[in-house]
C-alpha cells in the first residue's frame, strides 16, 4: 500500500520495486572518459529503489549505470522459483567475473576498463566483489581491505589509528565470552552480542546478565552472518561493551581522500517487543551542535583509518559522554544508508542526497566542489518506522495519509503489507518493520508534535487476525533472536523449578 504526495522532490518519485532483480535502464550518454563512450558506473547487487535512484543520479551527470551481480546474490536469486525468464537471463549474463579474470571480462563487456569511472555497491554480500572489481580494474582508490567488512577487524583498525574504539572479544565458545564480560566490563554492566557481519541491527542483542548473554550466545552461534561466501558461521560471536549515548548515522561521500558528510542522522531506537534496538525513527540532523560536530569529525577520521579514499560510506557512531566522546559501532564502507527513502528526505530537507553526492565525486568534479562539506538543512525531516506489535495475518492497513489535519508535516506513508498478506511478527529490527511515514516541515516543533501523534496512533495502523506461524530457522536456531532468548530463559527457569 503506497501513498505519495507530489510536491517538491517527490514529484519524481514513484512506486518502488521491493526486492527481487530489476535491471536499471541504460541510456546512451555523452562521452567523458578516455575510452570515448559514456562513463560507466558498475553497480554491484543494486536493486529496487536503490537502482532507480542511482540510475537517475548517474544519468543526470552523463553516466551509464551497469548492473553487476555478485556470485552470492546471483546464486541466491537463481535458487528461487519466482524469477521471470528475463530476470534469470540478466543474472547469468551480468554475473561478476571470477578473481583474476576482471580485466578480460571488462575487455569483453566494455572494450576495456577505460570507460569505467567507478564501482559502487548497496548490499552487504556484494561488498567484497565491489572492492575486488574496483581494485583489479584500477578505479576508485580504496584497494581491498577486509577490515571494512568485518566488525571485529574494523574496531581494531580504528583502535590502531589512535581513535576511540569499542572494547570487544571474538568468542568461539561461551566460556571465552563469559571471561571477557567478567574481566573487562564493570560488574552488572550490560554487554552486546552480535555477528561479525550484518546490517540493520539483525542479530544484535543487548544482555543485562550473564545468564541472558549465554542464551543470546547460543542463538547467535547458529545464525548465518552474511550470504558472502567468505564468511563462516563458525567464526564465533562478537561480544562488546554496551556503549551508552545517542546513536548517529553518518552518510559520507569521498573523492580522492576528501571526505564530505552528506547526511547526519540520529536514531531513535527503543526497547520494544522484547528487543533492545527497535527502530522507531531516523531523524535528519543539521550537524550544528558540538556533539554532532565531534561525531562528524570522528567519522572522517574513521574513514582514514579504514583507508577510504573514494565512494560512499554509512557509519554508525555512539556519542559517549566526554571525555571519551564518539565511538564507532560499525562502518558500512562502499554502500549507502540501509533505508531506501533516505534519498527522498535528503532531497526535501537539503536539496541533495548521498546517491547524487557520490555520483558528483565520480563524474563531475565541479559539482563535487560545490557540495557542502557538512549537511545544510533547509527543512526538518524524519522517517518514522512503523513497529508491528502483534502476531497474525493482516486484515486491514489504516495509515494516515498526506493532508491529515492532525499531521501537517506528513508527506508520505507506505506500508510493507496489504490485507490478506503473510502472517507478520512483532518488529525487532529494521528489516521487520511494517513500513514508514515521512515527516517534513520548515518548523521543527511541527515535526516533533506530529511524531508524538504518530506514536500514539501507531497501534491502530495494522489490524491483525491472530494466527501463529512456524518461525523460520536456520540450523535449528530461530532467526528471531529475542524470542529465542526468551524461550531459552523460560526453559532454564522451568528446569530450575523442576529441580527444586
TrEMBL record:
The keyword Nucleotide-binding is assigned to this record = yes
Pinpoint the ATP-grasp domain residues. Answer: 155-363
User: PROSITE patterns, from UniProt?
Assistant: ATP_GRASP
Q: Does the keyword Nucleotide-binding apply?
A: yes
State the UniProt keywords alphabetically.
ATP-binding, Ligase, Nucleotide-binding
GO molecular function list: ATP binding; ligase activity; metal ion binding
Pfam families named in the record: ATP-grasp_4
The molecule here is called: ATP-grasp domain-containing protein
Question: Source species, please?
Answer: Diacronema lutheri (Unicellular marine alga)
Amino acid at each position: 500500500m503506497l501513498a505519495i504526495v507530489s510536491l517538491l522532490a517527490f514529484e519524481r518519485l514513484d512506486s518502488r520495486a521491493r526486492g527481487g532483480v530489476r535491471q536499471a535502464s541504460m541510456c546512451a550518454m555523452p562521452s567523458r572518459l578516455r575510452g570515448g563512450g559514456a562513463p560507466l558506473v558498475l553497480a554491484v547487487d543494486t536493486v529496487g529503489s536503490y537502482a532507480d535512484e542511482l540510475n537517475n543520479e548517474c544519468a543526470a551527470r552523463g553516466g551509464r549505470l551497469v548492473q553487476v551481480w555478485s556470485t552470492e546474490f546471483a546464486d541466491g536469486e537463481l535458487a528461487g522459483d519466482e524469477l521471470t525468464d528475463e530476470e534469470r537471463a540478466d543474472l547469468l549474463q551480468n554475473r561478476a567475473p571470477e578473481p583474476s579474470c576482471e580485466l578480460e571480462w571488462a575487455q569483453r563487456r566494455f572494450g576495456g576498463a577505460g570507460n569505467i569511472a567507478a564501482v559502487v555497491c548497496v548490499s552487504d554480500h556484494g561488498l567484497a566483489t565491489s572492492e575486488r572489481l574496483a581494485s583489479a580494474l584500477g578505479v576508485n582508490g580504496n584497494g581491498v581491505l577486509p577490515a571494512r567488512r568485518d566488525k571485529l577487524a574494523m574496531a581494531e583498525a580504528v583502535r590502531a589509528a589512535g581513535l576511540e574504539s569499542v572494547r570487544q572479544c571474538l568468542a568461539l565458545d561461551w566460556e571465552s565470552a563469559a571471561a571477557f564480560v567478567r574481566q573487562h566490563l564493570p560488574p552488572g554492566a550490560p554487554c552486546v552480542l552480535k555477528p561479525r557481519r550484518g546490517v540493520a541491527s539483525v542479530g544484535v542483542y543487548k544482555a543485562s546478565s550473564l545468564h541472558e548473554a549465554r542464551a543470546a550466545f547460543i542463538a547467535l552461534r547458529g545464525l548465518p552472518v552474511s550470504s558472502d561466501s567468505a564468511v563462516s558461521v563458525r567464526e564465533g560471536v562478537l561480544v562488546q561493551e554496551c556503549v551508552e549515548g545517542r546513536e548517529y548515522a553518518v552518510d559520507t561521500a569521498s573523492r580522492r581522500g576528501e571526505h564530505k558528510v552528506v547526511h547526519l542522522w540520529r536514531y531513535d531506537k527503543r526497547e520494544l517487543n522484547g528487543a533492545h534496538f527497535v527502530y522507531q525513527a531516523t531523524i535528519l540532523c543539521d550537524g550544528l551542535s558540538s556533539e554532532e560536530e565531534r561525531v562528524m569529525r570522528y567519522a572522517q577520521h574513521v574513514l582514514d583509518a579504514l583507508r577510504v579514499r573514494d565512494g560512499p560510506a554509512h557509519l554508525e557512531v555512539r556519542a559517549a559522554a566526554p571525555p571519551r566522546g564518539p565511538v564507532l559501532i560499525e562502518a558500512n564502507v562502499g554502500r549507502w544508508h540501509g533505508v531506501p527513502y533516505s534519498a527522498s528526505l535528503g532531497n526535501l530537507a537539503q536539496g541533495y542526497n548521498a546517491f547524487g553526492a557520490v555520483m558528483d565525486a565520480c563524474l563531475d568534479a565541479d559539482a563535487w566542489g560545490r557540495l557542502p562539506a557538512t549537511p545544510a538543512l533547509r527543512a526538518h525531516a524524519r522517517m518514522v518506522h512503523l513497529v508491528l506489535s502483534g502476531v497474525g495475518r493482516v486484515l486491514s492497513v489504516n495509515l494516515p495519509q498526506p493532508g491529515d489535519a492532525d499531521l501537517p508535516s506528513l508527506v508520505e506513508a507506505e506500508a510493507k503489507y496489504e490485507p490478506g498478506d503473510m502472517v507478520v511478527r512483532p518488529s525487532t529490527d529494521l528489516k521487520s518493520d511494517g513500513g514508514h511515514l515521512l515527516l517534513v516541515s520548515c518548523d521543527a516543533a511541527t515535526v516533533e508534535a506530529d511524531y508524538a501523534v504518530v506514536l500514539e496512533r501507531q497501534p491502530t495502523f495494522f489490524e491483525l487476525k491472530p494466527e501463529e506461524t512456524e518461525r523460520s530457522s536456520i540450523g535449528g536456531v530461530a532467526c528471531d533472536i529475542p524470542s529465542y532468548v526468551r524461550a531459552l530463559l523460560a526453559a532454564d527457569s522451568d528446569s530450575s523449578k523442576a529441580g527444586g
